[in-house]
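Closing statement on the adenosine-5'-diphosphate sub-project.
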Amino acid sequence: DEETQQEAIRAAAEAVADRLEAEKEYLTELDSAIGDADHGSNLARGFRAAADAVKDDTESTPQELVKKMGVTLISKVGGASGPLYGGSIMSASQTLDDGVTAETSVAFAEAYLEKVKDRGDAQLGAKTMVDALTPAVHTYKKSIEVDDLPPLTALAKSTAAAERGVEFTVPIRAQKGRASYLGWRSVGHQDPGATSTWFIMQELLSVADD
Ligand code: ADP
Ligand code: MG
Ligand code: MG
């Protein structure tokens, strides 16, 4: 029911905020190699604020909670990742009119990917979060709609696909964002945004498993 969904959203927000806090230095280290060394602090700060924003909110619907997290991320995270994460979560929340079900979760994932691509204008292979997100979303959709797998199994496969997407960012040249300023020198480095996307998915999976 709705209360269970609200509880799951708050638990997921908390788990993601904790994980990004724990990975803050690692993400910043990745961003220092090909960016401006702020991805870890950007995301740790933003997702903590997003989790706090929904923590004691028992009034909002599941859709409103997700939207609120997006709005909070936009206001707390500067840089490229704020509008990409926050704006896309906010916009994709429109798919959650009927709450979070297997069906709406596929619609949410697709809308989120579309928004990120739309806002960032990054195609697959530009060495961005899109490289983790695309295989993750495609695998999730196919697992549910074609293979008829339970959402938890679909999410596990999707998270594994995101990990392969992260690995794919290493040997390619950045074509969007700060890393693109490095040109060929970006080759050999793992993209911070793809990495944080994968960490977030791991946390969604572990909360869904509970
Ligand atoms: P900034 O680069 O402004 O300091 P962050 O360090 O927080 O912002 O985020 C950097 C990450 O944002 C990159 O690793 C990449 O995954 C993602 N990113 C940057 N530009 C784009 C873009 N145009 N489209 C998609 N993702 C992008
Ligand atoms: Mg940065
Ligand atoms: Mg920055």
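The chain has nine helices and no strands. With this model delivered, the sub-project is considered complete and its resources will be redirected to Aim 3.
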